[in-house]
Every structure is written in C-alpha cells, then in structure tokens.
Amino acid sequence: MLTIDTEISGSSSRWQELGRRVLTGDALTIEEAREILQSPDEQLLDLLAATYAVRRAHFGHIVHLYYLKNAKSGLCPEDCGYCSQSVVSDAPIERYSIANERVLMEGAKSARDSQARTYCIVASGRGPSNREVEHVCNVVKKIKQEYGLHICACLGLLKPEQAQKLADAGVDRINHNLNTSRRYYQEICTTHTYQDRLDTLKVAHEAGMELCSGLIVGMGEEQQDILDAVFELRGLDVKSIPVNFLQAIDGTPLAQKDELDPRYCLKVLCVLRMAHPSVEIRIAGGREVNLRSMQAMGLYAANSMFVSDYLTTKGQSAEEDFAMVKDLGFEIVIGGHEGADDSAGLA
Q1: Cβ–Cβ < 8 Å for 95, 74
Q2: pLDDT tens-digit profile of 28-58?
Q3: One of this protein's Pfam families, by short name (predicted)?
C-alpha cells in the first residue's frame, strides 16, 4: 500500500508542478509534451486536474460554442484522405455548389438559436473563386447586421486580395488547419502542400483576421507528428485551435483507421492546453465517436466545442451538449465575442 500511495502522490505532484510552471509563464517543452502523451492511464485524472487549473485560470468556467455550416459540399479536386468531400472519396454525401443567401442566413439563425457565438462558414474545394468570395462577403455583412455573430470562414487556399476582401466585409477569423506535421502531410494529401496551408494562414493574418488552425488526430501519424504540429502552431499567433479526432468515413482512403481511445484523446487535449495555455482549444469533429462516454472530461482541458452537426457527419443534439455543459457546472457564453484574456477570473 505504501508503494501505491507513493506512486499516486508522485504522479499528482509531477503534473501539479508542471501546471504551476505553465501558469507562471514557463513554456511547455516538447519533451514534457511527449511525457504527457505517453503517461500511464492511471495518471489521467491527476493530469486532467493540473490541466484544468490552467484552463480555469484563463477561461474560468465558460464554454464557447461554434456552429458550422457546410456552405459548399463535395465537388473538391483535392485528395485529402480523411475527407468525404475529396476527389478520392466514394462516400455517399450531398454535393452542391455554394449556398445562397437565404440558406446561409438560416444557418446564422440556427447558430444564434444554438447559443453559438461563432458561425463557421465552410466551403469545400481547393480555394474559392472571386465570385464565391464576393458572395460570402455580401452575406457576412448581413449576418453581422442582423445577428452580430463572430464569423469564421474556411474556404480553402486564399489569395491575398481575397483575404483582404473577407476581412473588409467583417470576417473575424479564418480557419485553415495544419492537420498534421510537415513530415506526414504528403501521406494524407498530395494535391497541395503543407507550405500552401501556411501561406494561406500568412495572408489571412496580414489582412488583419484572426487565425484558427488545428489538427486531426488518428490518421496513422506518429506521436512526434502530433507534437510537431502542436509546436508549429505556437509560432503562428493562432487564437483558436480545433482538435479533430478522426471519424473514419466509409468510402474514404482512411475508412479502416480506428486507432484512438478516449484516454489518449484526453491526453492530446492536455498537451494542447499546456502548450497553448491562453489560446482557445476546441473539441471538434469526431468527439462523439472517439471520446464517447468521456466527452465531458474533454472540457476540463478545452474551453470550446462545436454544437450540433459537422460537415458531412452528424453530431449529438444541441440539447445534449447544453446538458453536458450544465452538468459540469460550466456556463455557455452567449453574445459578443471577447478574447481569451477577457474571460479570465470567471472561476
């Protein structure tokens, strides 16, 4: 019994000390991040407790909800192996060109009704045409006027002039995920490069928009690939990091991938929080499938999540999400968008 008590005390103090150092401004090292990913499952609760202290210091007990609208589905020439909308996918999905104003405005109303502060407009394809950019800009202006939502657009690879038009129209944030490491990227996509993604983030930032960029876990990558992506994001001034856990879709090249368990997913979220203490960490696609009964525990590390459905897959109902947040004793933030630091001290 003495040995067991000593081990419990040791693991608890190890993660508590790491959390304290992060809170005092020490940057998590890649070796410490690897230690988190490789930590024994029996230390998970101690790790989550330490991570939660960091989350609470920067975000209190608030949860920020995102609502996603698939504004253009399928019809994509890119060969991303995880995506049901790609040219190499046989998944039975809807395929349609960019949604009209009425549909996008209805999505904005649904976002507001779902208690989301951020409305994500997502369009498949390598990148938008100038006509599509103009259309999105016109609708965003109306959404801002009618609903006052924070707007995040994910439209693929952007040219500088397109990014500037979106910024001028009121788009607050551009999402363009790194997805994985530079080393592994060509294993999941060959029709554009990792550098292409970095370039789009650069032009969006130069246009004055916030950056949202994250990763997909469970695509056959090594732990080092996850760590490389996490630490690459440190140098990009991202304001939000969505963490997707692969939901293998029949008809895609990664359809047979099934290598995640809920405990590992939680460790990944802990790494992200410790590495990016004041950045919004969002539980994104695949949470229902991969976190399963442990979904709620993810919010001890993350401070935001998508509500309702994703691009071509269904999520749990908004009512279930609301209940989960309430059961944790947390509060959904509704209304105007504030930065991470504005939320501090709410615990």
Answers
A1: yes
A2: 999 999 999 999 999 999 999 999 999 999 9
A3: Radical_SAM
Residue 189 known to bind ligand: no
Q: Show me where the domains of the chain are located.
A: 54-335
Per-residue CA distances from 161 to 62, 203, 204 (Å): 36, 9, 10
Give the Å distances, CA to CA, from 331 to 50, 70, 257: 21, 27, 35
Give residues with Cβ within 8 angstroms of 116, minimum separation 6. Answer: 65, 66, 67, 149, 307
Please tell me the distance from the alpha carbon of residue 172 to that of residue 208, in angstroms, as a whole number: 8
Instruction: Give buried/exposed letters for 301-312 (b at 16+ CB in 10 A, else e).
Output: bbbbbbbbbbbb
- What pTM did the predictor assign? 0.92
From residue 292, give the alpha-carbon distance in Å to each of 94, 188, 287, 315, 319.
26, 25, 7, 12, 17
120 is in an annotated binding site: yes
pLDDT band with cut points at 50, 70 and 90 for residue 176: very high
Q: Is 287 annotated as a binding residue?
A: no
Answer yes or no: is 265 a known binding residue. no
Domain 54-335, CATH number (from 3.40.50.300, 3.40.50.280, 3.20.20.70, 1.10.600.10): 3.20.20.70
Q: Catalytic residue positions?
A: 76, 80, 83, 120, 152, 212, 282
pLDDT tens-digit profile of 238-256? 999 999 999 888 888 888 8
Q: Are 59 and 240 in contact (CB under 8 A)?
A: no
Average pLDDT on 279-289 reads: 94
